[in-house]
């Protein structure tokens, strides 16, 4: 198992945001975490990447317990993240943003940079533009490309479809598929459950800080309860 | 009045640029720390003061009592620069470790850090007035008086533009400040650590995801901002030849003003704000007399902020931050 979360509890002050979440991601998979606003999806990702401390439970990555590893060291073990709201550095150019992804690594990054530009030709056209002046879709590309620059073993994506037009969402999702096909494991957090379930191999459903369901993604697409809660309830189409 | 202005505008421009350069160097420390912590380090004025006394300490240690020249002058200046930069930079790092980091760790509010800063500022002033100036500088029971600095080199006119004589001390201040600014600009914009500083000031949480060690970036920021105040401290001691335990206070307020005027968080803004403040003070003095200097400076600040609340080069918080 590449990533294994065992019974984690996370608190914001006195409020318990995660009440014993366990999940596993195997090498090569796309796993998605779906659920309503406030279910704890972003908190789960932040706990994996070390931005939030956990009160109990543990996070195992690549066989090692990383529960107490400081956030800035987790990128080195192979965890790359495109955060909620994209987190593009507004005053840096596209190229500088991408280079930030390789901040923890040493050496020559020109090959990695070329690879990201090949995956996102749009970014190559805009490489000297300030991150803050880009459109939402372009910023999402910067965030994903930047995470790839760290050469992650697992890519954590927090709501990549947020605020994007349907055509762009389709484009981003097909790039995620391509990234996975090239060998990077993906853990995808989404509110757009329909598209996420179509893309992923397996899925977890999170409700108020707990995992309430876990199954192959295709099964959840046909699950009446999931359809009711997250897929608009419409029957007989997906 | 206009004739007065025309005859005095040249010299007061040179003087204004020299004081402005000193303001700008100090302003860098305020603006850099604000960039990464969103905190005004009110003890930065004492970081400057410590650097100025460090320079004087080395001057005394070397037994310098009168003007130097030639290779002895160059060597001495480099040594003094090193001493004041190290003292100010080191003091800034200690200050961060003792007065700010423990609060940050416990999630204290920025107001708590502000009080801590004011406390550290008063502590350091009194430490110098009560202990260090009487003991180390051998002035028993005169800790609150001025401490003279010997003249380091003879002041001469290097060249003239029209009726304006350009003196070597003014030229030295302006050149030294510009060189430091250029070095800092290259450091922040072209190096890996500089990128880490900018990333931290633009989005600290995402910076952590990139592998940026925020604590180490904050320490570096205090070190570099402090070292710049150290440069200013040497230039000030050399030019004004008098130090005091509270020498940093008014200069600190002015430098902070310069940082806000230029746009807090913006390095080039600090340079622009510093030079503008120096020029405005000196030009204004021609019309109103030099006793109105400070009134003019702060009136201009209020006026500028009325029309550009984020400062001249300032942008909204989400936007670019050098």
Walk me through this protein's architecture.
By secondary structure, chain A is α/β, with parallel strands linked by helices. Chain A has a single domain (3-224), classed as Rossmann fold (3-Layer(aba) Sandwich). Chain A has helices at 41-49, 71-77, 94-101, 110-119, 121-125, 136-148, 166-181, 193-199, 217-221, 224-230; strands at residues 3-12, 15-25, 30-35, 56-61, 64-65, 79-82, 154-158, 185-190, 202-207, 210-216. In chain A, the strands form two sheets. Chain A has a six-stranded mixed sheet, with helices on both faces. Chain A has a four-stranded antiparallel sheet with strand order 2-1-4-5, covered by helices on one side. The longest helix of chain A is centred in the last third of the chain and has 16 residues, at 166-181. Chain B is mainly alpha-helical. Chain B has a domain at 29-247. Chain B has eleven helices and four strands; from the N terminus they run H-H-H-H-E-E-E-H-H-H-H-E-H-H-H. Chain B has helices spanning 2-37, 44-61, 70-105, 110-136, 168-190, 192-202, 204-209, 214-240, 247-262, 267-288, 293-307; strands spanning 147-148, 157-161, 164-167, 242-243. The longest helix of chain B is centred in the first third of the chain and has 36 residues, at 2-37. Chain B is globular. In chain B, 48% of the residues are buried. Residues 316-322 of chain B have low confidence and may be disordered.
């Amino acid at each position: 198992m590449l990533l294994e979360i065992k019974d984690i509890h996370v608190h914001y002050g006195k409020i318990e945001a995660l009440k014993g979440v366990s999940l596993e991601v195997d090498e090569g998979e796309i796993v998605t975490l779906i659920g309503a606003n406030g279910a704890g999806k972003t908190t789960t990702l932040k706990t994996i990447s070390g931005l939030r401390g956990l009160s109990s439970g543990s996070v195992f990555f690549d066989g090692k317990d990383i529960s107490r590893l400081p956030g800035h060291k987790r990128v080195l073990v192979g965890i790359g993240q495109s955060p909620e709201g994209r987190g593009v550095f507004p005053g840096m150019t596209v190229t500088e943003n991408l280079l930030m992804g390789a901040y923890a690594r040493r050496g020559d990054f020109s090959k990695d940079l070329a690879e990201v530009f090949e995956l996102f030709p749009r970014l190559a056209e805009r490489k000297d533009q300030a991150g803050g002046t880009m459109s939402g879709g372009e910023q999402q590309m910067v965030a994903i490309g930047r995470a790839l620059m760290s050469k992650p073993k697992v890519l954590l994506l927090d709501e990549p479809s947020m605020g994007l037009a349907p055509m762009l969402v389709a484009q981003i999702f097909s790039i995620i598929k391509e990234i996975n096909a090239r060998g990077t494991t993906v853990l995808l957090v989404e509110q757009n459950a329909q598209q996420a379930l179509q893309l992923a191999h397996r899925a977890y459903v999170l409700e108020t800080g707990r995992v309430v369901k876990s199954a192959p993604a295709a099964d959840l697409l046909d699950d009446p309860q999931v359809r009711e809660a997250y897929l608009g309830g419409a029957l007989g189409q997906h | 009045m206009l004739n007065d202005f025309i005859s005095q505008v040249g010299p007061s421009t040179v003087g204004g640029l020299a004081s402005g350069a000193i303001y700008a160097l100090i302003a860098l420390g305020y603006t850099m720390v604000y960039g990464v912590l969103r905190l005004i380090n009110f003890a930065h004025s004492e970081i400057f003061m410590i650097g100025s006394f460090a320079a004087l300490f080395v001057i005394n240690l070397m037994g310098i009592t009168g003007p130097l020249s030639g290779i002895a002058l160059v060597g001495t200046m480099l040594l003094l620069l090193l001493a004041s930069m190290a003292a100010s930079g080191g003091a800034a790092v200690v200050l961060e470790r003792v007065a700010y980091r423990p609060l940050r760790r416990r999630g204290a509010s920025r107001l708590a850090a502000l009080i801590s800063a004011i406390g550290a500022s008063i502590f350091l002033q009194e430490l110098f007035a009560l202990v260090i100036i009487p003991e180390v500088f051998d002035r028993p029971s005169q800790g609150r008086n001025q401490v003279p600095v010997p003249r380091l080199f003879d002041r001469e006119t290097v060249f003239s533009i029209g009726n304006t004589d350009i003196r070597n001390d003014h030229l030295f201040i302006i050149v030294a400040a510009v060189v430091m600014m250029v070095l800092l600009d290259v450091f922040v914009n072209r190096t890996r650590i500089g990128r880490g500083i900018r990333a931290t000031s633009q989005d600290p949480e995402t910076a952590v995801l990139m592998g940026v060690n925020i604590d180490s970036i904050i320490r570096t920021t205090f070190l570099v901002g402090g070292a710049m105040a150290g440069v200013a401290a040497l230039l000030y001691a050399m030019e004004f030849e008098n130090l005091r335990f509270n020498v940093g206070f008014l200069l600190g307020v002015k430098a902070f003003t310069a940082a806000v005027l230029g746009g807090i968080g913006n390095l080039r803004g600090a340079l622009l704000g510093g030079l503008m403040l120096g020029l405005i003070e000196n030009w204004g003095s021609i019309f109103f007399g030099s006793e109105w200097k400070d009134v003019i400076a702060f009136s201009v600040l209020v006026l500028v902020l009325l029309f550009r609340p984020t400062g001249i080069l300032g942008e909204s918080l989400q936007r670019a931050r050098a």
